[in-house]
Fold this protein.
Amino acid sequence: MTDTPRRTLGATDLGTPPMILGGNVFGWTVDRDASFRILDAFVDRGGTMIDTADVYSAWVDGHQGGESETIIGDWLRQSGKRDRVLIATKVGMLPGEGGAKLAPARIAAAAEASLRRLGTDHIDLYYAHQDDEDTPQADYLAAFGRLIDAGKVRVLGASNFRAMRLKSALDLATTQGLPRFHALQPEYNLVSRHKYEGELQNLCVEHNIGVAPYYGLAAGFLTGKYRSTADLSKSVRGGAMADLLTGKGAAVLAAMDAVAEETSATLPQIALAWLAAQEGVVAPIASATSVEQLEELVGAWQLSLTSEQLARLTDAVV
């Protein structure tokens, strides 16, 4: 796709269309062959960034973590497309060698394990998957800095950080010459806005931190799949949708339905386009379990909602 829109992640040279491909499903609900097809289709359509984590998918019986990274690494080797993609992965949720969370020795060991599974000599964007208040921030920033100095990591990001802790990390980077977080990965979507909007959003805008939200489709709720209590049995995630159905979710779906009728776009496309239009957001993360689903998500890249439509969606639960 020569006309694929491209955005820059904060003050870095990492560019991406207004969607990042989530790799959490690889090796979990999507097998190796289907994962390869989705990855090929994503790159062929102009996608650049693939997001994963060392902990994916340790929550599955019989898994240990690293399953997603392993599949992506196998695909990179087989496809020969390493120079066409940016790999983002994370450390901090998978216990293992070197200690817990963001202990410096854990960061060093986890990075080596991720590099080995991915079959690459560098990680383009390395996230602290969650904050670690038991480890001094200066210590874990210095540990990340050693990876950057060694050429094993290009850019740092933070995931699931509160505004106060992200601010203190930025201040330390300035005062002590430590590496800086350039990206943030928060939970953020049309029905879950409190974790980003406000202080955290303002901080990211002020410091030019590129935001890549996860759960952009609210674990499937914003696809319109769950419209009644009878729909809750459609998937293992259905039980978590009950509160949304009886609360603000119904109003959001109604607003999305109206915009869908006006634009001929699907609800997933509208949800991602709304996210991509929010201040500070560079590209939401979305996962696909088939090439057909990926094609639908990619359609959001070219969808421009009017200011009136965006406001209507934003105000649906106010």
